Amino acid sequence: MASKHEQIIQHIISLEIGHKISVRQIAKDLNVSDGTAYRAIKEAENQGLVSTIERVGTIRIERKKKENFERLTFAEVINIVDGQVLGGREGLHKTLSKFVIGAMQLDAMMRYTEAGSLLIVGNRIKAHELALKEGAAVLITGGFDTEDYIKRLADERQLPIISTSYDTFTVAAMINRAIYDQLIKKEIVLVGDIFTPFERSFYLRAKDTIHDWYELNHRSTHTRFPVVDEKKRVIGMATSKDIIGKENQTTIEKVMSRHPKIVQTKTSLASVAHMMVWEGIEVMPVADESNHLQGVISRQDVLKALQQIQRQPQVGETIDDIVSRNLREADNQKDTYLTTVAPQMTNQLGTLSNGVFTSLITEASRRMLLQYKKGDLVAENLSVYFIKPVQIDSTLKIKPKLLEIGRMYAKIDVEVFDERKLVGKGLLMAQLINR
Protein backbone atom coordinates (compact mmCIF):
# COMPACT_ATOMS: atom_id res chain seq x y z
CA MET A 1 0.00 0.00 0.00
CA ALA A 2 1.28 3.46 -0.91
CA SER A 3 2.36 5.73 1.94
CA LYS A 4 0.46 8.95 2.68
CA HIS A 5 3.29 10.92 1.11
CA GLU A 6 2.98 8.92 -2.14
CA GLN A 7 -0.83 9.22 -2.09
CA ILE A 8 -0.55 13.02 -1.93
CA ILE A 9 1.94 13.10 -4.85
CA GLN A 10 -0.42 10.91 -6.93
CA HIS A 11 -3.34 13.19 -5.99
CA ILE A 12 -1.37 16.26 -7.14
CA ILE A 13 -0.50 14.53 -10.43
CA SER A 14 -4.22 13.85 -11.01
CA LEU A 15 -5.13 17.55 -10.66
CA GLU A 16 -5.68 19.68 -13.76
CA ILE A 17 -2.87 21.94 -14.97
CA GLY A 18 -3.40 25.40 -13.45
CA HIS A 19 -5.30 24.06 -10.38
CA LYS A 20 -4.51 26.00 -7.19
CA ILE A 21 -3.17 23.85 -4.32
CA SER A 22 -3.16 24.61 -0.60
CA VAL A 23 -1.77 22.70 2.38
CA ARG A 24 -5.06 22.98 4.26
CA GLN A 25 -7.16 21.70 1.35
CA ILE A 26 -4.82 18.74 0.67
CA ALA A 27 -4.82 17.84 4.37
CA LYS A 28 -8.63 17.97 4.45
CA ASP A 29 -9.20 16.04 1.19
CA LEU A 30 -6.79 13.20 2.05
CA ASN A 31 -7.23 13.21 5.83
CA VAL A 32 -3.56 13.85 6.63
CA SER A 33 -1.79 16.33 8.90
CA ASP A 34 -0.78 19.79 7.66
CA GLY A 35 2.89 18.83 8.12
CA THR A 36 2.56 15.73 5.91
CA ALA A 37 0.71 17.76 3.25
CA TYR A 38 3.34 20.53 3.35
CA ARG A 39 6.27 18.08 2.92
CA ALA A 40 4.56 16.32 0.01
CA ILE A 41 3.82 19.63 -1.75
CA LYS A 42 7.49 20.62 -1.38
CA GLU A 43 8.52 17.27 -2.90
CA ALA A 44 6.05 17.88 -5.78
CA GLU A 45 7.75 21.26 -6.30
CA ASN A 46 11.16 19.55 -6.47
CA GLN A 47 9.74 17.16 -9.08
CA GLY A 48 8.48 20.08 -11.18
CA LEU A 49 4.80 19.25 -10.65
CA VAL A 50 3.83 22.50 -8.90
CA SER A 51 5.17 26.05 -8.65
CA THR A 52 4.83 28.41 -5.68
CA ILE A 53 4.45 32.10 -6.46
CA GLU A 54 4.51 34.85 -3.87
CA ARG A 55 1.11 36.58 -3.45
CA VAL A 56 -0.47 33.96 -5.74
CA GLY A 57 0.05 30.59 -4.05
CA THR A 58 0.94 27.10 -5.30
CA ILE A 59 -0.42 25.93 -8.66
CA ARG A 60 -0.21 22.68 -10.60
CA ILE A 61 2.06 23.07 -13.64
CA GLU A 62 3.05 20.81 -16.50
CA ARG A 63 6.24 18.90 -15.75
CA LYS A 64 8.83 19.92 -18.31
CA LYS A 65 10.76 17.32 -20.24
CA LYS A 66 14.52 17.53 -19.86
CA GLU A 67 15.04 18.50 -23.50
CA ASN A 68 12.71 21.51 -23.06
CA PHE A 69 14.45 23.00 -20.04
CA GLU A 70 15.31 26.15 -21.96
CA ARG A 71 11.58 27.00 -21.83
CA LEU A 72 10.27 28.89 -18.80
CA THR A 73 6.72 28.96 -17.50
CA PHE A 74 5.11 32.32 -16.74
CA ALA A 75 5.00 31.20 -13.09
CA GLU A 76 8.81 30.94 -13.10
CA VAL A 77 9.10 34.36 -14.76
CA ILE A 78 7.17 35.91 -11.85
CA ASN A 79 9.65 34.45 -9.36
CA ILE A 80 12.63 35.59 -11.46
CA VAL A 81 11.51 39.23 -11.74
CA ASP A 82 9.73 39.42 -8.34
CA GLY A 83 6.55 40.26 -10.20
CA GLN A 84 2.90 40.76 -9.29
CA VAL A 85 0.04 39.16 -11.25
CA LEU A 86 -2.50 41.74 -12.47
CA GLY A 87 -4.65 39.30 -14.46
CA GLY A 88 -4.76 35.98 -16.32
CA ARG A 89 -3.79 33.80 -13.33
CA GLU A 90 -5.26 30.73 -15.07
CA GLY A 91 -2.44 30.87 -17.62
CA LEU A 92 0.53 30.91 -15.23
CA HIS A 93 1.34 27.27 -15.96
CA LYS A 94 1.86 27.99 -19.68
CA THR A 95 5.31 28.05 -21.25
CA LEU A 96 6.74 31.03 -23.13
CA SER A 97 8.42 30.34 -26.47
CA LYS A 98 10.31 33.65 -26.64
CA PHE A 99 10.25 37.17 -25.20
CA VAL A 100 9.98 40.45 -27.11
CA ILE A 101 11.26 43.80 -25.82
CA GLY A 102 8.76 46.51 -26.67
CA ALA A 103 11.20 49.39 -27.24
CA MET A 104 9.90 50.21 -30.74
CA GLN A 105 6.92 51.58 -32.62
CA LEU A 106 3.62 49.76 -32.04
CA ASP A 107 3.28 48.22 -35.53
CA ALA A 108 6.91 47.01 -35.48
CA MET A 109 6.37 45.57 -31.99
CA MET A 110 3.35 43.57 -33.16
CA ARG A 111 5.29 42.03 -36.04
CA TYR A 112 7.50 40.24 -33.51
CA THR A 113 4.76 39.44 -30.99
CA GLU A 114 3.11 36.05 -31.51
CA ALA A 115 1.11 33.45 -29.59
CA GLY A 116 3.08 31.95 -26.69
CA SER A 117 5.54 34.84 -26.47
CA LEU A 118 6.03 37.38 -23.66
CA LEU A 119 6.00 41.11 -24.45
CA ILE A 120 8.21 43.14 -22.08
CA VAL A 121 6.99 46.70 -22.22
CA GLY A 122 6.40 49.78 -20.07
CA ASN A 123 3.22 51.81 -19.51
CA ARG A 124 1.79 51.40 -23.05
CA ILE A 125 -1.85 50.35 -22.69
CA LYS A 126 -2.48 49.80 -26.43
CA ALA A 127 0.54 47.46 -26.62
CA HIS A 128 -0.83 45.47 -23.67
CA GLU A 129 -4.17 45.04 -25.46
CA LEU A 130 -2.75 44.09 -28.88
CA ALA A 131 -0.30 41.58 -27.35
CA LEU A 132 -3.07 39.76 -25.46
CA LYS A 133 -5.20 39.65 -28.64
CA GLU A 134 -2.23 38.06 -30.45
CA GLY A 135 -2.05 35.36 -27.76
CA ALA A 136 1.01 36.74 -25.94
CA ALA A 137 1.43 37.39 -22.22
CA VAL A 138 2.57 40.83 -21.02
CA LEU A 139 5.25 41.88 -18.51
CA ILE A 140 4.92 45.55 -17.55
CA THR A 141 8.17 47.11 -16.31
CA GLY A 142 8.72 50.13 -14.07
CA GLY A 143 6.07 49.08 -11.55
CA PHE A 144 3.16 50.40 -13.65
CA ASP A 145 -0.43 49.12 -13.50
CA THR A 146 -2.81 48.73 -16.47
CA GLU A 147 -6.49 49.39 -17.23
CA ASP A 148 -9.23 47.18 -15.79
CA TYR A 149 -10.46 46.17 -19.25
CA ILE A 150 -6.95 44.87 -20.03
CA LYS A 151 -7.05 42.73 -16.87
CA ARG A 152 -10.47 41.35 -17.88
CA LEU A 153 -9.08 40.52 -21.34
CA ALA A 154 -6.13 38.71 -19.72
CA ASP A 155 -8.53 36.65 -17.57
CA GLU A 156 -10.69 35.86 -20.60
CA ARG A 157 -7.69 34.74 -22.73
CA GLN A 158 -6.00 33.00 -19.76
CA LEU A 159 -2.81 34.91 -20.50
CA PRO A 160 -0.87 36.39 -17.55
CA ILE A 161 -0.27 40.10 -17.32
CA ILE A 162 2.50 40.77 -14.82
CA SER A 163 3.96 43.94 -13.28
CA THR A 164 7.54 44.32 -11.99
CA SER A 165 9.39 47.29 -10.51
CA TYR A 166 12.54 46.53 -12.56
CA ASP A 167 13.34 48.35 -15.82
CA THR A 168 13.13 46.64 -19.23
CA PHE A 169 16.87 46.05 -19.66
CA THR A 170 17.25 44.47 -16.19
CA VAL A 171 14.21 42.22 -16.72
CA ALA A 172 15.54 40.97 -20.08
CA ALA A 173 18.95 40.26 -18.55
CA MET A 174 17.36 38.36 -15.63
CA ILE A 175 15.24 36.16 -17.92
CA ASN A 176 18.20 35.54 -20.24
CA ARG A 177 20.32 34.49 -17.28
CA ALA A 178 17.60 32.12 -16.03
CA ILE A 179 17.37 30.44 -19.45
CA TYR A 180 21.18 30.14 -19.65
CA ASP A 181 21.36 28.64 -16.15
CA GLN A 182 18.79 26.03 -17.12
CA LEU A 183 20.68 25.22 -20.32
CA ILE A 184 23.73 24.42 -18.20
CA LYS A 185 21.63 22.32 -15.81
CA LYS A 186 20.22 20.49 -18.81
CA GLU A 187 23.71 19.12 -19.49
CA ILE A 188 24.17 17.82 -15.93
CA VAL A 189 23.20 14.15 -15.95
CA LEU A 190 21.43 12.97 -12.79
CA VAL A 191 20.87 9.50 -11.39
CA GLY A 192 17.19 9.91 -12.30
CA ASP A 193 18.15 10.08 -15.99
CA ILE A 194 19.93 6.71 -16.15
CA PHE A 195 18.93 4.43 -13.24
CA THR A 196 16.97 1.17 -13.61
CA PRO A 197 13.47 1.81 -12.18
CA PHE A 198 11.89 -0.27 -9.42
CA GLU A 199 9.73 -2.32 -11.82
CA ARG A 200 12.82 -3.68 -13.59
CA SER A 201 15.15 -3.87 -10.57
CA PHE A 202 16.32 -6.95 -8.70
CA TYR A 203 15.93 -6.76 -4.92
CA LEU A 204 15.35 -8.99 -1.88
CA ARG A 205 12.97 -8.76 1.05
CA ALA A 206 14.16 -9.08 4.64
CA LYS A 207 12.46 -12.48 5.09
CA ASP A 208 13.89 -13.98 1.88
CA THR A 209 16.59 -16.63 2.28
CA ILE A 210 20.09 -17.15 0.94
CA HIS A 211 18.53 -19.65 -1.47
CA ASP A 212 16.54 -16.70 -2.93
CA TRP A 213 19.79 -14.73 -3.23
CA TYR A 214 21.33 -17.51 -5.37
CA GLU A 215 18.23 -17.64 -7.58
CA LEU A 216 18.33 -13.88 -8.12
CA ASN A 217 22.08 -14.07 -8.78
CA HIS A 218 21.46 -16.71 -11.48
CA ARG A 219 18.71 -14.61 -13.15
CA SER A 220 20.53 -11.28 -13.05
CA THR A 221 24.28 -12.19 -12.82
CA HIS A 222 24.53 -9.41 -10.18
CA THR A 223 26.21 -10.10 -6.83
CA ARG A 224 24.71 -7.19 -4.85
CA PHE A 225 21.02 -6.67 -4.12
CA PRO A 226 19.17 -4.05 -2.05
CA VAL A 227 17.09 -5.47 0.81
CA VAL A 228 13.71 -3.89 1.60
CA ASP A 229 11.18 -4.21 4.42
CA GLU A 230 7.42 -4.74 4.01
CA LYS A 231 6.99 -1.04 3.11
CA LYS A 232 9.71 -1.29 0.42
CA ARG A 233 12.12 0.86 2.45
CA VAL A 234 15.82 0.07 1.93
CA ILE A 235 17.26 -1.54 5.07
CA GLY A 236 20.43 -3.19 3.76
CA MET A 237 22.47 -4.74 0.95
CA ALA A 238 23.07 -8.47 0.45
CA THR A 239 26.39 -9.19 -1.29
CA SER A 240 28.30 -12.36 -2.16
CA LYS A 241 30.64 -11.60 0.76
CA ASP A 242 27.66 -11.58 3.17
CA ILE A 243 26.18 -14.92 2.14
CA ILE A 244 29.25 -17.06 1.52
CA GLY A 245 29.51 -20.05 3.89
CA LYS A 246 25.97 -19.53 5.25
CA GLU A 247 23.17 -22.12 5.10
CA ASN A 248 20.62 -21.76 2.31
CA GLN A 249 17.65 -21.35 4.65
CA THR A 250 19.21 -18.47 6.63
CA THR A 251 17.14 -15.30 6.21
CA ILE A 252 18.68 -12.36 4.41
CA GLU A 253 18.08 -9.92 7.29
CA LYS A 254 20.49 -11.95 9.46
CA VAL A 255 23.44 -11.69 7.06
CA MET A 256 22.89 -8.45 5.10
CA SER A 257 25.09 -5.36 5.47
CA ARG A 258 23.09 -2.66 7.22
CA HIS A 259 23.15 1.12 6.59
CA PRO A 260 24.11 0.86 2.90
CA LYS A 261 25.07 3.88 0.82
CA ILE A 262 21.97 5.20 -0.97
CA VAL A 263 21.59 7.80 -3.71
CA GLN A 264 18.57 9.81 -4.84
CA THR A 265 17.32 10.53 -8.34
CA LYS A 266 18.60 14.13 -8.08
CA THR A 267 22.17 13.01 -7.22
CA SER A 268 24.56 14.01 -10.03
CA LEU A 269 26.26 11.41 -12.20
CA ALA A 270 29.68 12.83 -11.27
CA SER A 271 28.97 12.34 -7.55
CA VAL A 272 27.74 8.75 -7.86
CA ALA A 273 30.63 7.85 -10.22
CA HIS A 274 33.13 9.13 -7.66
CA MET A 275 31.39 7.18 -4.87
CA MET A 276 31.34 3.93 -6.85
CA VAL A 277 35.01 4.14 -7.85
CA TRP A 278 36.25 5.19 -4.39
CA GLU A 279 34.19 2.62 -2.48
CA GLY A 280 34.47 -0.16 -5.09
CA ILE A 281 30.66 -0.44 -5.39
CA GLU A 282 29.04 -2.15 -8.40
CA VAL A 283 25.34 -1.54 -7.64
CA MET A 284 23.67 1.10 -5.47
CA PRO A 285 20.02 1.46 -4.42
CA VAL A 286 18.16 4.60 -5.52
CA ALA A 287 15.61 5.75 -2.93
CA ASP A 288 13.37 8.76 -2.25
CA GLU A 289 13.60 11.00 0.82
CA SER A 290 11.56 8.48 2.84
CA ASN A 291 14.04 5.72 1.92
CA HIS A 292 11.56 3.86 -0.34
CA LEU A 293 13.35 1.91 -3.07
CA GLN A 294 12.88 3.54 -6.48
CA GLY A 295 15.36 1.41 -8.40
CA VAL A 296 19.07 0.68 -8.70
CA ILE A 297 22.06 2.15 -10.51
CA SER A 298 24.98 0.02 -11.64
CA ARG A 299 28.56 0.87 -12.50
CA GLN A 300 27.74 -0.18 -16.07
CA ASP A 301 24.92 2.42 -16.21
CA VAL A 302 27.36 5.10 -15.04
CA LEU A 303 30.10 4.15 -17.53
CA LYS A 304 27.66 4.14 -20.45
CA ALA A 305 26.35 7.58 -19.45
CA LEU A 306 29.88 9.00 -19.10
CA GLN A 307 30.74 7.73 -22.59
CA GLN A 308 27.55 9.27 -23.98
CA ILE A 309 28.33 12.66 -22.40
CA GLN A 310 31.65 12.76 -24.26
CA ARG A 311 29.70 12.63 -27.56
CA GLN A 312 27.18 15.33 -26.60
CA PRO A 313 27.64 18.94 -27.74
CA GLN A 314 27.88 21.25 -24.73
CA VAL A 315 25.27 24.03 -24.70
CA GLY A 316 26.42 26.45 -22.02
CA GLU A 317 30.01 27.24 -21.01
CA THR A 318 30.86 26.90 -17.33
CA ILE A 319 33.97 28.37 -15.67
CA ASP A 320 35.60 24.92 -15.89
CA ASP A 321 34.91 24.89 -19.66
CA ILE A 322 36.57 28.30 -20.05
CA VAL A 323 39.59 27.22 -17.98
CA SER A 324 39.99 23.99 -19.96
CA ARG A 325 39.60 25.72 -23.35
CA ASN A 326 42.16 28.44 -22.56
CA LEU A 327 44.82 26.17 -21.02
CA ARG A 328 47.61 25.16 -23.44
CA GLU A 329 50.99 23.47 -23.24
CA ALA A 330 54.06 25.69 -23.12
CA ASP A 331 56.52 25.28 -26.00
CA ASN A 332 59.70 23.35 -25.12
CA GLN A 333 58.79 23.18 -21.41
CA LYS A 334 57.67 19.82 -20.06
CA ASP A 335 54.73 19.78 -17.61
CA THR A 336 54.18 23.53 -17.98
CA TYR A 337 50.88 25.09 -19.08
CA LEU A 338 49.90 28.61 -20.12
CA THR A 339 46.62 30.52 -19.91
CA THR A 340 45.45 34.10 -20.41
CA VAL A 341 43.13 35.58 -17.77
CA ALA A 342 39.80 36.25 -19.52
CA PRO A 343 37.20 38.67 -18.06
CA GLN A 344 34.95 35.71 -17.07
CA MET A 345 37.78 34.40 -14.87
CA THR A 346 37.94 37.48 -12.63
CA ASN A 347 36.12 38.60 -9.48
CA GLN A 348 34.33 41.90 -8.81
CA LEU A 349 37.72 43.63 -8.36
CA GLY A 350 38.95 42.60 -11.82
CA THR A 351 41.57 40.13 -10.55
CA LEU A 352 41.75 36.32 -10.93
CA SER A 353 39.08 34.72 -8.71
CA ASN A 354 39.98 32.09 -6.11
CA GLY A 355 37.57 29.58 -7.68
CA VAL A 356 39.26 29.90 -11.10
CA PHE A 357 42.68 29.56 -9.45
CA THR A 358 41.71 26.16 -7.99
CA SER A 359 40.25 25.10 -11.37
CA LEU A 360 43.56 25.99 -13.07
CA ILE A 361 45.51 23.92 -10.54
CA THR A 362 43.20 20.93 -10.98
CA GLU A 363 43.11 21.06 -14.80
CA ALA A 364 46.90 21.44 -15.17
CA SER A 365 47.45 18.53 -12.77
CA ARG A 366 44.94 16.40 -14.65
CA ARG A 367 46.70 16.98 -17.97
CA MET A 368 50.09 16.16 -16.49
CA LEU A 369 48.78 12.88 -15.01
CA LEU A 370 47.23 11.87 -18.33
CA GLN A 371 50.75 11.84 -19.78
CA TYR A 372 52.25 9.82 -16.91
CA LYS A 373 49.47 7.38 -16.04
CA LYS A 374 47.11 7.55 -19.01
CA GLY A 375 44.40 8.09 -16.40
CA ASP A 376 42.20 10.80 -14.94
CA LEU A 377 41.88 12.26 -11.44
CA VAL A 378 39.27 13.33 -8.93
CA ALA A 379 40.43 16.05 -6.51
CA GLU A 380 40.13 14.85 -2.90
CA ASN A 381 41.82 17.75 -1.12
CA LEU A 382 43.23 21.03 -2.40
CA SER A 383 45.25 23.34 -0.15
CA VAL A 384 46.01 26.84 -1.44
CA TYR A 385 49.08 28.20 0.34
CA PHE A 386 48.71 31.70 -1.11
CA ILE A 387 47.34 33.62 -4.10
CA LYS A 388 48.28 37.16 -5.15
CA PRO A 389 46.16 39.53 -7.30
CA VAL A 390 46.41 38.77 -11.03
CA GLN A 391 44.99 41.26 -13.57
CA ILE A 392 42.83 40.66 -16.66
CA ASP A 393 44.82 39.67 -19.80
CA SER A 394 47.81 38.46 -17.75
CA THR A 395 49.49 35.33 -19.12
CA LEU A 396 49.95 32.74 -16.39
CA LYS A 397 52.39 29.84 -16.33
CA ILE A 398 51.18 26.82 -14.31
CA LYS A 399 53.80 24.23 -13.29
CA PRO A 400 52.49 21.05 -11.60
CA LYS A 401 55.15 18.85 -9.95
CA LEU A 402 54.46 15.22 -9.00
CA LEU A 403 55.55 14.59 -5.38
CA GLU A 404 54.08 11.11 -4.79
CA ILE A 405 52.08 8.64 -6.86
CA GLY A 406 50.55 5.24 -6.07
CA ARG A 407 48.02 2.92 -7.62
CA MET A 408 45.05 4.90 -6.30
CA TYR A 409 46.31 8.37 -5.39
CA ALA A 410 48.71 11.16 -6.28
CA LYS A 411 50.13 14.19 -4.50
CA ILE A 412 50.95 17.17 -6.71
CA ASP A 413 52.59 20.51 -5.89
CA VAL A 414 51.52 23.34 -8.23
CA GLU A 415 53.14 26.76 -8.70
CA VAL A 416 51.59 29.59 -10.72
CA PHE A 417 53.70 32.38 -12.22
CA ASP A 418 52.78 35.75 -13.76
CA GLU A 419 55.77 36.33 -16.04
CA ARG A 420 58.57 35.34 -13.59
CA LYS A 421 56.78 36.32 -10.41
CA LEU A 422 55.29 33.54 -8.23
CA VAL A 423 51.64 34.53 -7.68
CA GLY A 424 50.13 31.34 -6.29
CA LYS A 425 50.97 27.94 -4.86
CA GLY A 426 48.83 24.92 -3.97
CA LEU A 427 48.95 21.22 -3.02
CA LEU A 428 46.53 18.77 -4.62
CA MET A 429 45.69 15.30 -3.23
CA ALA A 430 43.86 13.33 -5.91
CA GLN A 431 42.27 9.94 -6.43
CA LEU A 432 43.28 8.25 -9.69
CA ILE A 433 40.82 6.73 -12.16
CA ASN A 434 42.46 4.47 -14.75
CA ARG A 435 41.03 4.67 -18.25
Automatic annotation (TrEMBL):
**Which superkingdom, per the lineage?**
Bacteria
Q: Name one GO molecular function term.
A: DNA binding
Q: Which InterPro entries match?
A: CBS_dom, CBS_dom_sf, Diverse_CBS-Domain, DRTGG, HotDog_dom_sf, Ser_kin/Pase_Hpr-like_N_sf, Thioestr_dom, Tscrpt_reg_HTH_GntR
CBS domain location is 195-254, 256-314
What Pfam families does the annotation carry?
Answer: 4HBT (PF03061), CBS (PF00571), DRTGG (PF07085), GntR (PF00392)
Q: Which UniProt keywords apply?
A: CBS domain, DNA-binding, Transcription, Transcription regulation
Protein name, entry field:
CBS domain-containing protein
